[in-house]
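Minimal example, chain plus pantoate.
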Amino acid sequence: MTFVTRSLVSAGLLVALGLPAVAQTEVKIGYALAPDSHYGVAAKKFEEVVKAETGDAFDFKHFPSSGLGGEREVIEGLQIGTIEATIVSSGTLANFVPETGVFDIPFLFNGFDHARAVLDGEIGQDILAKFDNVGLHGLAWGEQGFRHITNNRNAIHTPADVAGLKLRTMENPVHLAAFNAMGAAPTPMAWPEVVSSLQQGVIDGQENPLSVIVSVKLNEVQKYLTLSGHVYSPAMLLVSKPFWDGLDDAQKAAFEKAATEAAAEMRGYVDNVETTGVETLKERGMEVNALSAEEKAAFQESIAAAYEGYYDTYGQDLVDSIVNFK
Ligand code: PAF
C-alpha cells in the first residue's frame, strides 16, 4: 500500500469512527547528496525515528542531490520557514554562525575520536546552540570525514604540486585562506556546479571526504586522489526555527532523539567508507597516493600564515583548547 493510500485508509477509518482526521505536518528535508550517501541514510533514519516517536504526525518529503538548491540557499529557506530541515556540511555555516568556522581549520583534529569528542562536548554544543539566534535550530553534529584532494593535473606530494591548481573549495573563508597560503588557485563554488565544472575543465580539482568522492562517483571526472586528510569536515542536522518553535515538547524530544540516531547512522556510514572507499576508488581507476607524515607536515607548514589569521579570528586559546582536547 502506498503512503497516500495508507493515509486515505486511516483517514477513512477515523471518519467512520466519528473522529476527525489528524492532518500531518509536512517536513521538507533537503540535502546535497544522493539517497545512498551518508546524508541520505541519516535523513532516512531521522524520518523513521520521528515517525516511530510521534505516530506518523509528520509527513517527510526528501529532496536529495541538491533538489532544493545549494547548501546556502537551503539554509536561507530554513530561516524564512519554506524548508523545515536539512543536513549540511560546514561549508557555508560560518556565514550564519561565524564561530562554526573554527572547526574548519585545517590540521585541527588528529582523528575521528578527537573530532567527535570535541563536537559532542561543551565546545561543539555551545556553538550548536548559537543557531537559535539566527532563525535556525541545530539538532546534532554529524560528519563527512576528513577531506582529501582530487584533481586531473598531477599527483600531489608537496605544496609545490598544488601551485596554481584550480581547486574548487566550499564557500568557506577558512578553507580559502588555507589553499591561498598553500599556493593553489582556490575557486569557491556552490556544490551543484562542481561536477559539470570538473567535466568542462573550468577547475582542475576539488576536495571532499571519501564519503562524497565515493557516493558521487567523482572518479568519473577526476584522475588523481591524494589522501591529504587536510581538514575534518563536520556536518549538521538543522531545522528551521519557525518550525521548531511550532512543535510541542514531546515532538521536540522526538526530533532530538531522531537527530541523535541520524548522526550516529551518518558516522557509521563514514566509518565504513573510510575502510572500503580507497579500494573502491582504485578499482574504479583512480590513481591514489597517501601523504606520508613528512609530506603532511610540509603542507601544515605551508599554511602557517593562514594560522595567524585563524588565531586572530577565533582566539588562540580556543584553537589550542580544541587541539589539546582530551
Ligand atoms: O563540498 C561540499 O560542498 C560539501 O562537502 C558537499 C559535497 C556539498 C556535502 O555537504
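The radius of gyration is 21 Å. The longest helix spans residues 249-283.
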